[in-house]
Write a structure and sequence with these properties.
This protein is 3% helix and 47% strand. By secondary structure, the protein is mainly beta.
Length: 153
């Protein structure tokens, strides 16, 4: 497990077992140090060049992996009590060289863009089921988040 520059965020290299028939891609186990509990698991598809931003959860922890495609993901710490308040981190995810699980705790706003030529498939194993009251959506060019997608890709 590797730490990010944002407090509480971590990324863990994931195992890929390949042979001539295809691959088995690990994501998370209930004995993984970062696993707390199962809430829900879902997939998010992102088409090439498309940006999905910004999302903020107040209670839910995200565990993201990218088995197909390539994305750039941007994290912004909105937790006023955090030692990394207002820090931004930019990561690239995707196989074959950047296959890892990204743990995003509550209070970290995030967005991503498909930067590959094929659609990207993100899997999220969250610790609690989604409820609209615990999440917020910000526009792509929100004044609250000091990141410009057009200038940074």
């Amino acid at each position: 497990m590797d730490k990010s520059i944002i407090s509480g965020v971590c990324f863990t290299s994931l195992k890929e077992i390949s042979d001539t028939r295809g691959s088995v891609l690990h994501m998370i186990r209930n004995d993984s140090p970062e696993f707390s509990q199962f809430g829900e698991c879902y997939f998010s598809e992102v088409l090439p060049g498309v940006i999905k931003a910004w999302k903020l959860h107040s209670l839910q922890t995200q565990n993201l992996a990218l088995p197909i495609g390539r994305i750039q993901i941007v994290l912004f710490d909105m937790r006023k009590s955090s030692s990394t308040f207002k820090k931004i981190e930019i990561l690239e995810m995707g196989r074959p060289d950047k296959y890892f699980r990204l743990l995003i705790p509550p209070g970290i706003c995030y967005g991503f863009k498909c930067i590959g030529t094929e659609k990207a498939l993100i899997v999220n194993c969250a610790d609690i089921p989604y409820t609209p009251s615990e999440s917020s959506i910000y526009p792509i060019n929100s004044n609250e988040i000091p990141y410009n997608w057009d200038e940074n890709i």
